[in-house]
Amino acid sequence: MKKIVIISLLLLILLAGKLYSQDLQAIVEINDQALSTEARERLTEFKRQVEDYLNRNKYHQNPIPPVPCYFTFNFLSTNGFDQYTAQLLVVAQREIYRQNKNDPIKFTQTFKFLDERCVFNYSRSMQFLKNDVIFNSLLSLLDYYAYLIVGFDEDSYFPKGGTRYFQKAQDLCNKPISGDEARGWSETGGGSKPSRLQLVQELLNVSYDDFRRGYFEYHWMGLDSLNIKRANAFEHILNAMEKISNVKKKQVKAFNIDIFFDEKSDEIAEIFKDYGNRNIYDRLIQLDPVHRNKYEEAKKQAR
């Protein structure tokens, strides 16, 4: 009997590995209109090669359902050879739990960030081989955001579940980098945009633990529970926002919290239309004053 149980568990593990052979379900888009015709021709394989790289490599230690994500490259310039300057928009999402599998599938964004300072080398003949030890200006950039995507996905299911993946992202930031390719990795670049290092340092800083706990509560105990115990789910979403807002008040800069509310404010405003008391929007404005206009408009439409 014991042998049968062990064999069954091994078969389940093997089956899970087969079913979930990739961690990301990535779609890559490019906008190369700012480049010359010759430069655009050198990018004809870029979308396919980058998609293939992201979708065939492992970033999570276990088999997981592939995380839907989008990488949009807006190419700005080239040095005339293999070096490119671009902006990169990264968006990741995950399915919201459905108790009734016949209900339509709904998704929520888990991460959205516009990286405005990307400089990397690319040629069609380059080898797309994942290597966390040796820095590569393009592949390390892809790996960095892949680890963030997986990390945020884990944080949405388990309290601080993404720590090991955020650590891997930070390790990439600490590689020796020089020249133009260093842009965006550790220097701030001025303004309100963080470097990649700053972004992940926040996530690993104990001062932001309540942000990550709130992030988990918002998704797992809030969104995923709306169709199970609706009243409890509303309270968990409010509790999560309270935790996150309190961290924001204590920190001079809280880049990840700004990102969170930027990506979630529309969703939050829509969710509370069915709360049953329009005055809840006054509390939402207190917790997220930056998006006051969205909440005031939703308050007018609340049922």
Report on the structure:
By secondary structure, the chain is of the alpha+beta class. It has 2 domains: 186 residues, no CATH class; 94 residues. Helix content is 47%, strand content 16%. The protein has 11 helices and 4 strands. It has a 4-stranded mixed sheet with strand order 1-2-3-4. The longest helix is centred in the last third of the chain and has 21 residues. The N terminus is likely disordered.
Task: State which percent range the strand residues make up.
Answer: 15-25%
SSE series? HEHHEEEHHHHHHHH
- Shape, per Cα inertia axes: globular
Q: Please mark out the parts with pLDDT under 50 across 5 or more consecutive residues, or reply none.
A: 1-18
- Let me know the largest β-sheet: 4 strands, mixed
Side-by-side strand order of the widest sheet: 1-2-3-4
Helix content: 40-55%
Structural class: alpha+beta
Total of domains:
2
Mean pLDDT: 92
DSSP helical segment count: 11
> Over all CA atoms, what is the radius of gyration?
21 Å
Got a strand count? 4
